[in-house]
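Exercise 7. Given the encoded structure of a 301-residue chain, write a plausible sequence.
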């Protein structure tokens, strides 16, 4: 991608505070190419300690934008009255794996010990609940240790203070390289589980429409750059520099979400998971009430 000429750059820089677990591919590309600055938005990034930390910070306005999974958004709206909206999807699907001690021969054996999780009411744990149900295990009979986000869970696994947990790239490969065993993959349990999304409070979106449009334009430009076959090696290198394993980097470059549009099948999968484990609540959310397509449409125009 050619640099945006100075005369085409935004004269006024707008500020955006975001919080996330692991930087997803479009964000890595945008930072690598300095696209946020080129589009006139100063992005301040915080790495979260847990989903509770992220969700509460969005609900109370500590941060403007969060990068999370769809189920987080649904749960935070239900539990914290956060009034969040999903405005973009940054990955087609979530690659996840349940990893544990090398001696474990099955999920049932791993479930006899405490399982390290982020939250017990939202996020990847819902996929674990489905896996347990398929193994004939009621998740309510298991013990869970709320360790925190994926980095904290990997570190607990590596330090020997956790025996099993769900991981995502780049931590899956790091765990396997360290001798831990993969007991199941997410695509075996919840193949339609969606990738991470961009979310913000509805009130913030109304008051900061231009900031969000600039932010999304930078991400769209980043995706377009990575989709160009001539940039394939550079895109993979950028992800590897961000500590993604080569296999994960190649997959992300090969299978992007070019228009960043939230996928309805992913939303439906999340609703199904919440319904299965009894965490849906009395009022089932509708996709049209949670997904706001307006900012992305304006960004792409």
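Solution.
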């Amino acid at each position: 991608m050619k640099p945006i000429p100075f005369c085409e750059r935004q004269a006024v820089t707008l500020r955006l505070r975001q919080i996330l677990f692991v930087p997803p591919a479009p964000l890595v590309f945008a930072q690598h190419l300095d696209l946020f600055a080129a589009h006139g938005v100063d992005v301040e990034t915080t790495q979260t300690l847990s989903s509770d930390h992220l969700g509460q910070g969005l609900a109370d306005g500590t941060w403007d934008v969060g990068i999370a999974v769809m189920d987080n958004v649904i749960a935070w709206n239900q539990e914290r009255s956060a009034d969040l909206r999903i405005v973009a999807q940054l990955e087609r699907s979530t690659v996840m794996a349940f990893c544990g001690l090398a001696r474990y021969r099955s999920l049932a054996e791993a479930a006899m010990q405490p399982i390290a999780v982020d939250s017990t009411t939202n996020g990847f744990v819902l996929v674990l609940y489905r896996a347990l149900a398929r193994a004939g295990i009621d998740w309510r009979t298991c013990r869970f240790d709320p360790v925190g986000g994926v980095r904290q869970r990997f570190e607990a696994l590596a330090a020997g203070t956790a025996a099993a947990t769900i991981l995502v790239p780049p931590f899956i490969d790091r765990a396997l390289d360290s001798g831990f065993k993969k007991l199941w993959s997410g695509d075996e349990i919840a193949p339609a589980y969606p990738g991470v999304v961009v979310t913000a409070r509805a009130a913030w979106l109304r008051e900061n429409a231009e900031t969000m449009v600039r932010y999304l334009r930078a991400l769209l430009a980043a995706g377009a750059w990575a989709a160009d076959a001539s940039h394939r090696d550079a895109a993979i290198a950028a992800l590897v520099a961000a500590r993604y394993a080569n296999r994960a980097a190649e997959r992300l470059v090969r299978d992007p979400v070019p228009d960043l549009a939230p996928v309805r099948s992913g939303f439906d999968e999340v609703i199904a998971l919440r319904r299965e484990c009894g965490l849906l609540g009395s009022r089932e959310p509708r996709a049209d009430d949670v997904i706001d397509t307006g900012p992305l449409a304006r960004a792409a125009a």
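Remark. The CA atoms of residues 17 and 44 lie 5 Å apart. Students should compare their own answers with the one above.
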